[in-house]
From TrEMBL:
GST N-terminal domain mapped to chain residues: 1-81
Protein name (database record): Glutathione transferase GstA
Keyword Transferase among record annotations: yes
Domain GST C-terminal: 87-204
This protein's UniProt keywords: Transferase
Listed InterPro entries: Glutathione-S-Trfase_C-like (IPR010987), Glutathione-S-Trfase_C_sf (IPR036282), Glutathione_S-Trfase (IPR040079), Glutathione_S-Trfase_N (IPR004045), GST_C (IPR004046), Thioredoxin-like_sf (IPR036249)
């Protein structure tokens, strides 16, 4: 498999999932602005959406959309329990988290990366994200991870967005559950490895 990624973008989530799953993969860096691969190839020919992540399967098929990709990865390594079994109540709870993260949190983060957006508009979206994170904080009370004791692909997704919050100087001091959760996920060896491979933290 090939993971088409941009360092620190939402493609970090499936990168974490691949490492947690223990699946073999190749990293292919994408220049999102130029829509080019490192070798100069046109990324749009491969993925007309022009976004990351994209997962190239051995069959030649390209799968896009992070919440779909991470489930596909989890299902290929079911023994790792990165996603509950299909049809189970827990699987629907995972889907609920993935949908909340992509539609409520991720989409509110997006405008804050726009260089043309004024500070007032960015403050609006920051308040919106912080409100969503307060909800997440409340749900993490007494839990190690979003689904309870077990790390799942939803945790890799949430953690990715929390790293964006770091870049934007988000203050999580009023959300102790979320702050502890962030540290817990960051300490996972596979999360550390993904961040090192993407140049987000320095290798020891």
């Amino acid at each position: 498999m090939k993971l088409y990624y941009s360092p620190g973008a939402c493609s970090l989530s499936p990168h974490i999932a691949l490492l947690e799953a223990g699946l073999p993969y190749e990293l292919v860096k994408v220049d999102i602005r130029a829509k080019k691969l490192e070798n100069g190839e046109d990324y749009l020919k491969l993925n007309p959406k022009g976004q990351v992540p994209a997962l190239g399967l051995d069959s030649g098929e390209i799968v896009t959309e992070g919440p779909v990709i991470v489930q596909m990865i989890a299902d290929q390594a079911s023994a790792k329990a990165l996603a509950p079994a299909h049809g189970s109540a827990e699987r629907y709870k995972l889907l609920e988290w993935l949908n909340f993260l992509t539609s409520e949190v991720h989409k509110s983060f997006g405008p804050m990366f726009a260089p043309t957006l004024n500070d007032e508009a960015k403050a609006f979206f920051k308040d919106r994200v912080m409100g969503k994170l307060k909800y997440v904080d409340s749900q993490l009370a007494g839990r190690d991870y979003l689904m309870g004791k077990q790390f799942t692909v939803a945790d890799g997704y949430l953690f990715t967005m929390l790293t964006w919050g770091d870049r934007m100087k988000f203050d999580l001091s009023a959300m102790p559950n979320l702050a502890a959760y962030k540290s817990r996920v960051a300490a996972r060896p596979q999360v550390q490895e993904a961040m090192k491979k993407e140049g987000l933290i320095q290798a020891a």
